[in-house]
């Protein structure tokens, strides 16, 4: 991925990780189109930045994704980077029958969203120079947070999908996986101030430094996520799962207080 001069489409760009990275890419010389459901949030994220543009997109709507992709390519023919960042996370109790609407929405946004948008833009990306697709997964793709089972499963699925995508598109489109640790954002209630989570600016700065490397790593991994990423490889998966489960419960409780 070029270290400047890209035209990047960033889903989920109105807040959190998407907004923070959009600002860093903008400041290094990239043009960024931030996409999301709420125009007001997008406008706030783009304010004062001449190379950040906004576009409303609901990745749950398959027809809307196709129409959106056609318009983006028409309006920004130099588009060469797709950043699949939009996602939601819900805590779920699996011990009794429940309403599955949260689980179904998580699947639609976190899995079908990136697959649909990648599919809608792949012919364009294959045809432009320096094309790249960045899929945002999570450290929870490697060790699940049992309190958020569907979210963790979607990130594991997108990790696997990214491996296949990278293999099929070798020599045509660069495929990069960004796997964050727990970051202080509004992804879940109280998370923006939750103890033990990585501050958003520190995370975005660390990620931007890795995107400045040439060649770009195929996996963008800050130090704080290696505890999860390497757990199985280092033979400590069960211990890490137990530690993560206990630590996350303590962090949420402390944050709520």
List the helices and strands and how they pair.
Elements: E1 7-11, H1 16-27, E2 31-36, H2 39-46, E3 52-56, H3 62-75, E4 81-84, H4 101-126, E5 132-136, H5 149-168, E6 174-178, H6 200-211, E7 219-220, H7 226-229, H8 237-256
Helix pairs in contact: 1-6, 3-4, 4-5
Please give a quick description of this structure.
By secondary structure, this protein is of the alpha/beta class. It has 8 helices and 7 strands.
Count, helices: 8
Number of strands: 7
Strand order of the largest sheet: 3-2-1-4-5-6-7
% residues in beta strands: 5-15%
Radius of gyration: 18 Å
Low-confidence stretches: none
Q: State the share of residues found in helices, binned by percent.
A: 40-55%
Distance between the termini: 43 Å
Taking the sheet with the most strands, its summary is: 7 strands, parallel
Q: What series of H and E elements makes up the topology?
A: EHEHEHEHEHEHEHH
